[in-house]
Write a structure and sequence with these properties.
Chain lengths: 111, 116
Amino acid sequence: DQQVKQNSPSLSVQEGRISILNCDYTNSMFDYFLWYKKYPAEGPTFLISISSIKDKNEDGRFTVFLNKSAKHLSLHIVPSQPGDSAVYFCASTGANSKLTFGKGITLSVRP
Amino acid sequence: EPEVTQTPSHQVTQMGQEVILRCVPISNHLYFYWYRQILGQKVEFLVSFYNNEISEKSEIFDDQFSVERPDGSNFTLKIRSTKLEDSAMYFCASSDPAESSYNEQFFGPGTRLTVL
């Protein structure tokens, strides 16, 4: 089941620079897309989300972009901080339904 | 800030034994979920629960698994006869559509289940 794909397993960026995390999906029926952040030995923590009817949602340093025609979304973090180092999961869902996760991408922000 | 809690944090059991993983969802939430993550793999949906019944389950959630909300606060996942391949992190989550139209689910810290 590869409905949500995060093809890059890791990303390393310099503190202060932009981090761009990518995600692709195959199911055009998804209504919502969410990004979760996970530290070791903790559960996923909700970060930001976007509805399928929008193409951008911004919350502070975090912006999610959705390209429905390409079935692609991305998370931009700017400026990146060392505390952002974690595993980031892209997830998709319909209303009140299960989350379908990607494999995650490990972000390392170098001081 | 309200949070989802899970106990125990780590459970070690022998193959064939029954285990019960416990969760206390956020108190005003109405939808409850169990997910699991086998080491090195993605987080996988197991089951969702609403209005005291299962609303959706994955193919992983076979007859060995069951869920229950025995009282107004706890939400449990039972594995009747554990197998080696059940070793994973099990995450409980809850949500309330009145709070978020994005089906934002709040996750607990997880229970690491090790089957020997």
